Amino acid sequence: MLKKITILFSVVLLFILCFFIFLKPLEININYINFYVKHKISKIFVGSSVNMENTSVIWQKDGKNPYLVITDLAIANPNFTIKVPELFVHFKLSSLFKASTNLSQVSADNMHVCVNQKEADFKAVNFNLQNSVKTIREFFFDLNADSKIEFTNIAIDKSTEDEFFIDKLYIGKGEDFNVLDIHVNTKDGKGFLNDLSITIKNRNNLLNVYGTFYNLKLGLLSEFSTLVKSYNLDKNIGFKGSFSVKINKKDEIVDGNIYVLNTENYLNKNLALTNVNINLTYSDGIISVKNFHFKLNDTYLSLIGKMNFSTSHALLRINISKFAAKDLCTYVPDGVVNSKFKSWYCDNIKGDVLNTIVSFNGKINNLVNEDLSDIVIVANIENGSVKFDEDFEQVKELKGDLIIKNNDLEITVNSAKFQNFTINGGDIEMKSLNKENSVLTINGQAVSDAYGLYEPIRFKLDDVVKIERDKVGGMAKSVFNFRIFNLNADDKKVDFSANFHSEIDNLAVYNASLGKYDIKLSFGSDFIDLNGNGMVNNTQLLFDLKSSNRNESFAWNLTGDLPAQILDFDENIGGYVNTNIESVINQDKTGHINGNMDLSELESRSSYFGRKNRFEDHNKVLFSVKLKGADELLIDKLDVIGNDLDIKFSGRVGNGNLYLNSSSFKLPDNDFSIEIESGKEKNAITIYGEKINLSDILGLLGKNNNGLNKDIEISMNVDNVIMKEGVVIKNAKLNVTCTKGNCNGSQFTGQFLEDSSNILAEYSGIGLEIYADNAGILSRSLGISKSVKNGKLSLYLSPQRENEEHYGMLSISNFYIKDAPLLTTLLSMSSLPGIVNAIKDEGVYFYKCNVPFSYKDGSVEVEESWLEGAELGISTSGKLDIRNYKFQVEGQVIPAYSINKSLLKIPIIGKLLTGGKSRGIVSIDYKASGDDKNNNVSVDLISSLTPNLLKRLLGVFDRIMTKTNEAVIGGLKGGVKKKFGST
After folding, report:
1. In this protein, which residues make up the domain named YhdP central (predicted)?
2. Which residues are paired to 283 by β-bridges?
């Protein structure tokens, strides 16, 4: 590290030597002195120009020796310039006629040395160790006893560094010719050191050179300038130490030692560089590192080893406690690794490297020539990160072990995270770091959720198909491999390829379970190849996706059974859809989607009371769609075919609107055409034709509680509408217009084919009103009940109130109830056999039924309602759960209802006989719950045998007795308390 300081110092030293050497053979002759001086200086400073203003010899009085004065001396070459205003050279007059001239003193003041070249250009200076040692020997023996050289106020500067100074440079011998002293002093911290003392002693032509130095400045060591700048080290950090060298008569160094410490911190600063301790020895051609360690911030570095120059072999070991991975970008010299690899490393690698051990066992030339083949590096990596492509997130939180050996890199990964993957093991390798075709490979195992498999290729597919995280479930175990190419190739772009093999436990898509699923994914910067394989519904479910033309086009295929939930069918439709779909989608959103879906295994729960219906066998959907760009589709074919099934659609999608029309719409008992327009603003449906069968979808319509959130228009004009139980409505016309949920003016009209009776439904500002001339047929057509016969019906349902409830009234007049299982059970338990027989035969006649109710969130609250007939009166109240088809009601059954009601109308006597709260003298209390198939009915038999007047009298007597008992018990407690309280 002292190489460049030595060069700077040598510039000054050579200048001194030139004036000593060129005078050695000089016979004073003023005529050629200028030529001689220039000649000698030019021989020492090869390639330099030498100029001087004037040269003269000054003779002194009183017999003193003369001296030579050279003014404005300038020595210049491309690397440096030396300027000396006045140089004084004293010599002994008695030596003028001898073989050599003895100098007694050389001195100068205000010298200036300017180094012109940049730091990197110092390689151009030919610095030879053996030549320098020879120069030292010659200088030592050519300098006479009692001679001295003294330069003061020397200024040295570089174009890239600050100026520094040497206050005094002294070189001289005393009376002993065999001892030479050299001193360099600088005051006030202006120089690159404060003090340098060197003593050279001669013993039988063996030169012993030893010295000390103090406060050698870090900031002025050009070799360390990168370190100083990068770490913002204090430039005033200083070093002190000592050194010794032995030089034999062959100008060879036979022994040496150097010892360096950092100086005391007098300023009490928190210095970045501390604990410096360096001890190097040299003997018999071997440099031994006894001590070499320092602490830089939180990093501790130590070095031990040997360098044998006789065999050109070195054995070194470096220990580094911790450093940032990015530090290698600064301190690894250019040429050690490929410049492109180094650039990639510096742009994409982060983290901390701990417990690093660098070992070198090989030829010194390999070390000098930056050959890594003899270097072994082992280290731990903590919190590392690797970004191998700009489209991907980093591999983060990497922990592992690193080894570089024989120019091969290997990292054992203990744990890491990559996007949504948790990596629990793996390795990173790069064989032959110095070869152009070297490949960096990353292998490992990881776990993630199923969506994590989509994340690495999301940036390539988001414009084509988007998958939301909450729509995909399941845990994946993956084995992966990444290969990064062209890291050492200067003329090629860095590229990569990746392979994943993942097994997903219980893959779920849109809440539908696909069970175990196997995925193989390969991708790179310009391709994707994804294959999925699993068993669903005992059928192989296959999915393939491939990209081509550098990801400009994507082709995918799907074959197998899909759960109905994935296709976002109604919640009442289950089962599976067998699919066979193929598609090509380009980046400009053009392409096609073709395929078919077999609906044979779909299950429909469309019955109002939950009856399961299978779709007809071999029902299929065939479709062919052309993609015309963003938000634009051309639907060439959308066909649904099967047994007695032929539906054909065509249409388009543009500007967010769907347009469909049917050229054929034939279902069992259906023959009509339909036109559909669906968009952001409104939905419009037009239906016309011979007949339409609504029987299988009435249950679904009844369950739909989503409301009308969009504007919708529906127009239907069909000759015959087929309802439940084969009921047909002829001349059916429907017109629905809803704007922001307001459907005022909507109307449905038609006639029952069975008796030509009319049906009318209309919605206005006051609510929904329905009228039917035959309540029994309407009840059967809606799948509500087959027990009602004839009768006129009216239904009113109010608009939704602020409490989100609807209120309404159902009224039916002049109707019969026949074959009603629940009512038959109730009457049988009430011991009314005559009426039971009537229900089973011709039915029981009721002249009126009024049911006030309220509706909210699928639940109907029935207030006290009455079925009134001559033979029977029935009251009921309770709750109906429409969604789950359950009910819970209670009420009274009154036989001979007309007689009882007539008695009720008699003033005073009627109320006494009926008890005032009932409509008959005798009534039967009941409770019922369940559904139409499984229900419980209970009857209070005691109440059926007890007249209502007696029930009321017993009730009054019970209340009187209860109050009397309470009074007696209260009186007894008060008397006892009074008696014992007075004693």
Report:
1. 240-736
2. 255, 286
Which residues contact residue 108 at a Cβ distance below 8 angstroms, ignoring those fewer than 6 apart? 84, 85, 86, 87, 88, 151, 152
Helix runs in 419-533, H state only: 455-461
pLDDT tens for 445-497 read 989 888 887 777 766 666 656 677 778 888 989 998 988 888 878 788 888 88
Q: Are 50 and 42 in contact, with CB atoms under 8 Å apart? A: yes
Write 561-569 long-range contacts (CB < 8 A, 24+): 561/536, 561/537, 561/601, 562/512, 562/536, 563/512, 563/513, 563/514, 563/536, 563/537, 564/512, 564/602, 564/603, 565/510, 565/511, 565/512, 566/509, 566/510, 566/512, 568/510, 569/602
Distance CA 652, CA 758 (A): 39
Q: Long-range CB contacts (< 8 A, 24+ apart) of 407-413? A: 407/372, 407/373, 407/432, 407/433, 407/434, 408/432, 408/433, 409/433, 409/440, 411/381, 413/444
Give the H or E element holding residue 84: strand 80-91
Q: Of 235, 110, 83, 233, whose CA–CA distance to 169 is shortest?
A: 110
CA distance 714 to 918: 49
Q: If DSSP states are collapsed to H, E and C, what string results for 807-846?
A: EEEEEEEEEEECCCHHHHHHHHHCCCHHHHHHHHCCCEEE
| The amino acid at 818 | K
Q: How far apart are CA 138 and CA 136, in angstroms?
A: 6
Total Cβ atoms within 10 A of residue 164: 20
Query: How many angstroms from the chain centroid is the CA of residue 947?
Result: 79
Look up residue 41 and give its two tokens: 């200086």
Q: How far apart are CA 732 and CA 738, in angstroms?
A: 20
Q: Is residue 274 within 8 Å of residue 262, measured between CB atoms?
A: yes
Helix (H, G, I), strand (E, B) or coil at 553: strand
**Which residues neighbour 772 within 8 Å (Cβ) at sequence distance 6 or greater?**
757, 758, 759, 760, 778, 792, 793
How far apart (Å, rounded) are the C-alpha atoms in residues 835 and 817?
11
List, for residues 495-508, the tens digit of each pLDDT value: 888 898 999 888 88
Instruction: State CA 817 to chain mean position distance.
Output: 68
Residue for token digits 């049906």? 759
0.85 exceeded by the pTM? no
Would you give the end-to-end CA distance of the chain in angstroms?
Answer: 117
User: Domains of the chain (ranges plus CATH)?
Assistant: 2-115 (3.10.450)
For the range 302-307, what are the long-range contacts, defined as Cβ-Cβ under 8 Å and sequence gap of 24 or more? 305/360, 307/364
Identity of residue 335: G
Whole-angstrom CA distances from 401 to 357, 410, 412, 415, 484 are 12, 8, 5, 11, 20
Mean pLDDT, contiguous 10-residue spans, the chain (983 residues): 46 49 45 66 73 79 73 84 86 54 78 67 45 77 84 76 79 90 84 86 91 80 52 72 90 89 69 86 90 86 90 91 81 68 80 90 78 84 81 81 86 85 86 82 88 73 68 88 84 85 87 88 84 90 82 85 78 82 86 88 53 52 86 85 80 85 77 82 82 63 48 86 88 86 87 93 90 92 86 92 88 87 72 67 85 91 88 88 86 73 52 49 80 79 50 47 55 47 44
Contact predicate 775/793, CB 8 Å: yes
E strand or H helix at 227: helix 225-231
CA distance linking residue 729 with residue 781, whole number of Å? 9
Q: What is the DSSP letter of 252?
A: -
Q: What is the 3-state secondary structure (H, E, C) of 710-746?
A: CEEEEEEEEEEEECHHHCEEEEEEEEEEEECCECCCC
- Output the CA–CA distances (angstroms, integers) from residue 815 to 281, 331, 603, 707, 785, in the order listed: 123, 102, 38, 33, 13
pLDDT reported for residue 518 = 93
- Radius of gyration of the chain from its Cα atoms, rounded to whole angstroms: 54
d(CA 695, CA 679): 28
